[in-house]
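Many groups now describe folds with learned vocabularies. In that spirit, our science desk offers one protein's residues alongside their backbone shape tokens.
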Amino acid sequence: MPQAKLVYILSLRNAAADRAGRPIDYRGGQRYMRSPLEYLAHALDTTPLGDAYALEGIVFDDDPQSPRDQAALRDYGFFPEPGRPWIFPPGLTAQGRRLEDLLHAVPSEYRRLPLGAPQRPAGKQAFEDALLAQLRELRADVVVLDGLLVILDALVRPGAPFHRRIVNIHPGITRTESPYRRRGACATLDALHGARGERVTDWQRMAAEPAPTVSHTGASLHYVDNGIDSGEVIYDVLGTAIDPRDTILELRWNNFRQSLFPALHQGLMLLAPHIAPFGAPHGASARTPAAAVPETTEEFYEIR
């Protein structure tokens, strides 16, 4: 079965907020914060996921000329540097290739413009055009978004070249009917407030009102559409119990291992036989159906 060419897109500033690649304070001790990208690199080398996919590129949208991005990445920088911890360990490889050599910058420069600026729509379109050109250059069959802090528009419209080729791994349940639904950039913090019997009504002012208590959160791999985490769900996992005393990073650490890594892994395995090769019509697939999704022990998702 030919491998599907996978391109991974993220915002480094989101990984930096997670303290990816570094120890975090965890209930009186410390634990290493393994990012979804680092998990995927390991899984491609050690599980059947590597038979189904080849990691072709890692694209990030952070803008070196943006003061906000500079501040968000002050402890990391925009590229790996010798002697400085980054979002993944130095020298990390996947399928015999160094992740550092797979990095591509496509900065979302339009974000420097004020909201409502008349030039902003054209700037957003220029960014998506540049992203499309990069994906075509890499001949991506499938694209995985992880904490990309911009909303795609033209790239995911019906009829667009990458419609239903772009999926997102989200740290929350996204199904409309689920009482555990948590969409948007604040999904983990939203779940933590839910465990404390609150619902945030205004994120800018952090205004909240009483709400039914939520005991668990999870993660979803879903197709990307023009909404916010509203695309069709491929696979989700509701596997993370919430302790109301958790910090945001403690809950992120738990949710990555108990829900997000499994949802990413199992969702990609389910998706693999349905991916058409680059340039083929949507719905066409020359790939042999994958075997049943293997059982993966909880220990596998732990850092070794």
Q: What stands out?
A: The chain is about 25% helix and 20% strand. The radius of gyration is 19 Å.
